[in-house]
Structures are given as C-alpha cells and as structure tokens.
# Entry
Amino acid sequence: MPQTADDLDAVAVRTWCSLALDALGREREAIDAINVYPVADGDTGTNLYLTVESAAAAVEAVFAAHETGTSVPSTADAVRAMAHGALIGARGNSGTILAQLLRGMAEVLAEGAGAGRLSLALTRAAASAREAVAHPVEGTVLTVAAAAAAAAERPADGAGAPAVVRAAYEGARTALDATPGQLAVLGRAGVVDAGGRGLVAVLGALVEAVSGRAPERAYEAPTAPAPAAAVAGDCSAGDGPQDGPAFEVIYLLEAGDQAVERLRTRLDGLGDSLVVVGGDGLWNVHVHVDDAGAAVEAGVEAGRPYRIRITHFAADRLHARPEPAQRAVVVVVPGDGLGGLCAEAGATTVLARPGEPPASGELVDAIRRAHAREVVLLPNDGDLRHTAAAAAEQARAEGIRVALIPTRAAVQGIAALAVHEPDRSFDEDVVAMTAAAGATRYAELAVAERQSWTMAGICQAGDILGLIDGDVAVIGEDVPETARKVLDRMLAAGGELVTLVLGEDVPDTLADRLEEHVREGYLAVDTVVYRGGHQCAPLLIGVE
# Structure
C-alpha cells in the first residue's frame, strides 16, 4: 500500500479500486435504501458496486498482462484501464456519472499523479460529469463532486497527496450532509443523496489508498434512511418523475463526437435523466423514456449501439418469456467435475476458474439462465459475499425471488444441494439448505508458494498446508499425511459424513487410503468421494 505523499502510482490505483469495491460492498444495501432520486427504484448502491467492479477488473487485467515481466503497469495505463472499465460496465444513472468522474480524473492523472495533479483531476472530474448530464440538479452527486474538487484546492502549496485527498473527502462529506436541504424529495424522505453517499465511499477508499490509513472519520448518515419504497412516487415537479418515463435504456455506443451531440438533442426530447459519458469514439448512454425503441433507434442512427439494457420501472421484466419454473439453485463450483455433479442434481452452475472468481454479472446471467421464479444462490466462497449480494439484488430488481445462502466452500454447497427439495415452500427449503451448509465444516489442502507465518507456525515453499475453516491448521510434507491430520482434527469434534473432493492430478488411491483411515478410526462415519476436476486445491474436505 502506498505510503508516499508525492505520487499516485499504479499500485495505489489498483488498491483504490479494491478498497472502493469493498466499501461499496459494505454500504450497498444502505445506499440502495435511500435511493429516492431521480427514481425511487432502490438500486443506486448496487449500480455503483457493479460499475466499480468493472473498473477494478479492468485494472487487474492490466496487472495480469505484466505478470510475466519484471515491471508493473504505468500510472497512465492503470488510470486509463480504470476509466475504461467503469465506462463499459456503468450501470444506472449513478454508475454512469461515476464512470465520467473517473474518466475526468484519468485524463489528468495519465499525465502525472502528484498532489497538484490530484487536485486538478478532481476538478476535471466534477466539471466533466456535470457536462455529461443534460439537466444538472443541485443536491445530487454532482454537488458532492464539485464540493470535493473545491476542497481539494485548499491545502497549502507543497501539501502532499494525502492532504489533498483528505480535504476532498471532508468536503464531500460536508456537501453530502447538506443535500436534503437542496433537493426537496431528499428532505421529505429524510435522507441524503444516494449517489453522493456512494461517491463519499469511493473518496474514502482513495484516502486509504494514498495515505495507507482509512479516513479518521468514517461517514455516518445524519438521519435514519427511509426505505425507497416509502417515498416512491413522492416527487413533485422539479424533484423527479412522479409519473415519469416507464423505461430505463442504457447502451454502449461507438460514434463520433458530432453524431453524439445530435443524439443528446434527440434523446433529451424523448425523456429525462439523460447522461451521455465517454469519448474517443466510445460512449455510455443512459436515459429514461416511454418509447424504449425510439431511444435505441436514435443510437442506431448515431453509430453502433451494443450491450443494450432496457428496464421497465413498473414491471418485473420487459420482454415476454416462457413460463418459468418455480425454483432453481445456482451454484459456484471450483472445478468442472463438481460442475457436472451439481448439474446432474439440477443446479445451474458457474465455474470459478483458478485465480478468476466470477463477476456479479456472470452470477446474474446464471440466475436468469436458471429461468425460475425463485432461486437459491450458493457462492461457495467467502470472498464472493459482496459479489453474490450484488447479483442477488440485481436479480430481485428484475422480479426474481433470490435467497443467498452464504456458503464459504464447495463442500458446504454440496451439503446444501443434497437437502434441496423444490416441492416444499421456498422459506422451508432455504432454512433446510442453510442449516445443512452451516453444519458442514470445511477444509482444503494447498501448496505453500513461499516461506511465511501461519496460524500453525512457519511454512516453507513447497510445504503442504491444511486449512480448516479458512485458517492454516496443519503444515505437512506430503498430501496423504497432511490430509489424515486434517481429518483427525475435524473429526475430533464429531461427525457423521466425510466428503472428499479430489483434484485433477490426485490419484484415486489417496481417497481409498483416507476412506480406510476414517473407517478404522471413527465408527459410524461414512465417506463419499467426488472428482472435482481441474481446481485450485488438490483436496477439499467436508465434515457434517
């Protein structure tokens, strides 16, 4: 994590994206709950999360391209990737504006990223975002961004980057607290602007990325949030559409500057909440309209629209589709072997490749692909909790009832799937699956890549590590002996069923030896063995 006060390098940009994603993951539900403007559809936090998720993925891709060399990406490469990722992944009104804020910053930081450039970058970001909105309104994220930029100019000459970003953060906090007095719909609901609150979270992450420390004062809403549904439709003229346009239309567009200017005029006449961001031939278009087809046709006339997303504000789904099944299970699996097993059990699977966890968009696509009114989502990885939560929220906004069971390992997902009964009520099924997952302790074997400290002592590169419930509990020299020690520790607390999932290169003889060990040492404990195929760990263990 960067500690210098003089520059924002590529590693700091990467850290910023990661911290911002974590912050929005934590605050997503709270931000969704206060989303009352411009439409009280309760998705601002989710849209901001998905936008930053795309930005972070783009930055990670740049770093991955440098893994075979000895250098890291340049700051210019990192900030441009961040802006491009946000642009192509922007969701909703708030996400589109955030994408333009990041693009404005990237335009300046690509030429240099010292303290003075950071201040200029925030100024450019606020100005470009305001220009992208057809009819700017005070008391929104635009106001918060402008206040952050103004505050960033106040530190004395020679102040380092941490002082600049802290000032911007504090300025944004102060402006956010004032938004209920600037926008009547916020005042009536007793909430601050949702998009502005998301920007404060992103700026707080920037403070931590630059200085190495989180802001001294974390943001707390000055008033209790009112659920968006409670104020839906409570918008007078000038505050938001009470009986506003029926559709939200978003698409990426390849077009020239002049064609986009004509498009702005055309779309402004069709609807409201118009935001067009981007440049250099690639744009993200967002508008609320009654005639979704006309909005898309306008894009066709301007250039090449693609990734078209149309959301009906008043209906669960826009397009007619065959009658869905009542219930389905979507499960993330670490290997193709488990994927086949879960598919045979009737689940829709998402493959988590080594080092490539699925994005929330993949999970949403899988939920849609399951084609059911009710879906149980099993992420099978603790690190996917925010991603899975965002996917579930997005699917709920589309009218699908989704229950997220926070499984932390594949063996917990197998246990949950084993007790799944689609004929009983949804709530009863979810309770039973959650109980089965929670009653399953999980472990895995891994190979140490380097010398390091662990909960079980110091390990050397090449050692076999036995992790129980996520913590290193055993350090061994070979897989069989380490696996036996892990099993003994897990079964010391009791158990009725042991599940073994073997990796692609692990011989069947290991499973035979471990089954014999369990049979001889633990009465009335059964063992089941599955082939996991190509997966990160040579062995996964579950004990129920």
In short: The radius of gyration is 25 Å.
